[in-house]
Amino acid sequence: MSASESQSKSTATGAGEWPLWEVFVRSRAGLDHKHCGSLHAADAAMAVQLAREVYTRRQEGASVWVVKASDITASDPRDKDMYFDPMEDKVYRHPTFYKLPDSVDHM
Amino acid sequence: MTSITLKPSADVQYVLRLADTALILAQRLSEWCGHAPVLEEDIALTNMSLDLVGQSRALLTHAGQLHARAGGKAFDEDQLAFLRDERDFLNPTLCELPNTADEATHRRNRPGDFAFTVLRNLMVATWLKQVWAKLAASTDEELAAIAAKAIKEARYHQQHNGDWVVRLGDGTDESHARMQRALERLWPYVAELFEDDAVDEAAAQSGLGPRASELRQGWEADVSPVLAAATLGAPQASPFRSTGRRGVHSEHMGYLLAEMQTLQRTHPGAVW
Asked: For the segment B65-104, what is each residue's pLDDT rounded down to a tens digit?
């Protein structure tokens, strides 16, 4: 077996082949699942188990979600200006011109 | 540092058998730390090892108290873990076997064989799960409390390792062959897990805990479907009987204890 063959074989059977999963944990006190990191696992069931091992070992969590990283559609960093920049100077997008009654003032 | 000696007591021996099962398997699993096939599984194996250390600490502490109650010295968990000699360790031999299905090549291949490791974990976790379930009704309240906490850990260990056994057993030709080899290596040592003697009989009479033989049915009901799903065939029963629970161990035990005990015996009373 040549060196390149041996290398491609070890890559094909190595951990690099496992897909990446994003892990969301709901803490004991928290209301919603929060993204806390990622890991590699062969399938969803293994990803949940390993998420438990890696991210909830010290009682951080009461529930875990895993999502295959490739299933997440993200905004393109090149669209950042177009998507997010204009907000700050468009004060009319913020509902700050209304006077709220005291009872709902924490909104 | 001189070894401690224990006053013979069936209750103490019964609890030490459980404590040593957890402690010695934890020591074997700790050999994987930093060496597992992938990072996530490295953390998983180490977490399981730490769960077992936690169980053994509670049990050793309790064994020390029972020993004092039976008129012996009040030993603490560290003395019991690090200052007993090989003959006073009462784990089944299954727990002390090196992490390999092939001893001839093991020294070159440490920490060892992953298939062997997860299959043994499954066997021991399933056995401990039966023990903890029955100990919930123990007349010894402390032991019942330890069991109530430990059973959750045993259930998880059973699931995690069982999943691996199925994945590898029902995987590629290579992974199947390795898992079958691990099963053939481990199987002769399973018989000891269900053999009764006077210690079991005394525990059953006093209500301390179940006889070993009472665990067999539940264990087989749990393990058989996993082996079937993993397409593994259970080997023929053999007349061989290991004797670790009586303190007569394999040739591997001395090396394991030397590594585990060297620090406390070189620097008595050392703490973090």
From this structure: 999 999 999 999 999 999 999 999 999 999 999 998 777 7
Residue B257: give its domain's CATH number.
1.20.1260.10
Q: Does a structural domain hold residue B22?
A: yes
Which positions in chain B touch A58 (Cβ < 8 Å)? none
Least CB–CB distance from A54: residue in B37, B43, B159: B43
- Check residues A80 and B31 and name the one with the higher pLDDT: B31
Between β-strands A20-26 and A63-68, what pairing exists: parallel, antiparallel or unpaired?
A: antiparallel
Domain that holds residue B94: 10-266
Once rounded to an integer, what is the mean pLDDT over residues A40-69?
90
Helix (H, G, I), strand (E, B) or coil at A24: strand
Structure confidence at residue B30 (pLDDT)? 96
Position B271 in a domain = no
Q: Are B44 and A45 in contact (CB < 8 Å)?
A: no
pLDDT digits (tens, 9 = 90+) for B119-139: 999 999 999 999 999 999 999
Whether B178 contacts chain A with CB within 8 A: no
Over chain B, what is the mean pLDDT? 95
| Maximum distance among all Cα pairs of chain A, rounded to whole angstroms | 78
Structurally, how many domains does chain B consist of? Answer: 1
Query: Is the overall model pTM greater than 0.80, yes or no?
Result: yes
Q: For residue B118, give the nearest of B44, B62, B7 by alpha carbon.
A: B44
Q: Are A52 and A64 in contact (CB under 8 A)?
A: yes
Neighboring chain B residues of A39 at a CB cutoff of 8 Å: 40
Q: Determine the residue among A49, A55, A58, A59 to mutate to test chain B binding: the one whose Cβ has the most chain B Cβ atoms within 10 Å.
A: A49
pLDDT (mean) for B56-62: 98
Contact B209, B135 (CB under 8 A): yes
d(CA B122, CA B94): 12
Q: Do A50 and B40 touch (CB under 8 A)?
A: yes
Q: B55 in a domain, yes or no?
A: yes
Cβ A40–B167 below 8 Å, yes or no? Answer: no
Number of residue pairs across A and B with CB atoms under 8 Å?
28
- pLDDT the model gives residue A3: 40
Question: Within a domain: residue B251?
Answer: yes
Answer whether A48 touches B (CB < 8 Å).
Answer: no
Interface pTM (ipTM) of the complex?
0.78
Say how far apart CA B225 and CA B231 lie, in whole Å.
10
Q: Tell whether A41 lies on the interface with B, counting CB pairs under 8 A.
A: yes
